[in-house]
From TrEMBL:
Domain of life: Bacteria
PROSITE patterns (alphabetical): PROKAR_LIPOPROTEIN
Species the sequence originates in: Cellulosimicrobium composti
Protein name: Uncharacterized protein
Length: 153
């Protein structure tokens, strides 16, 4: 990290690009935390109501110490299936996972009984620990880490 006034940012080159990827830094008096790693979902295809095992690896590019209040919210968003569902956007929270100090987490979540059959995205959102893009208006937020699954009939 390098100091620039009251800011701490990662890396000495591409100061804006590196924090957007790694998420480490101190902005003012607040610490910015990393986005979680991409989740690994087992099984990759399951019917509505089925249990999914989710493993979230640590992010090796980041400061790994997470605050005690940090949680990962696991969300599912189905793909739009046909024209009749165009106005219907479905996103459901599948639950919260507690990350370990290194940012890794694992657990079991259940697909909603009413989730449509077809492709879906399971994403992970960090809660209770601000990321660099939430603290610094000059840094864009990347999409939440996700994995694609197939909801079978």
């Amino acid at each position: 990290m390098i100091a620039t006034g009251s800011r701490w940012v990662c890396g000495a080159v591409l100061v804006l690009a590196v924090p957007a990827l790694s998420g480490c830094g101190v902005i003012g008096a607040q610490t910015a935390y990393c986005m979680p790693g991409d989740p690994v979902i087992t099984p990759p295809a399951a019917p509505p109501g089925a249990e999914l095992q989710i493993a979230i690896p640590e992010n090796p590019e980041c400061e790994t110490r997470m605050p005690e209040r940090a949680r990962y919210e696991v969300l599912v968003t189905p793909d739009i299936l046909d024209k009749s569902q165009e106005q219907w956007h479905f996103q459901a929270s599948l639950g919260l996972l507690d990350p370990a100090d290194d940012g890794a987490a694992e657990g079991t979540v259940r697909l909603p009984d009413d989730i449509p059959v077809g492709g879906a995205e399971v994403s992970v959102r960090l809660q209770g620990a601000p990321t660099i893009c939430e603290l610094d208006p000059h840094v864009s937020c990347a999409k939440n880490p996700f994995a694609a699954i197939e909801v079978t009939g």
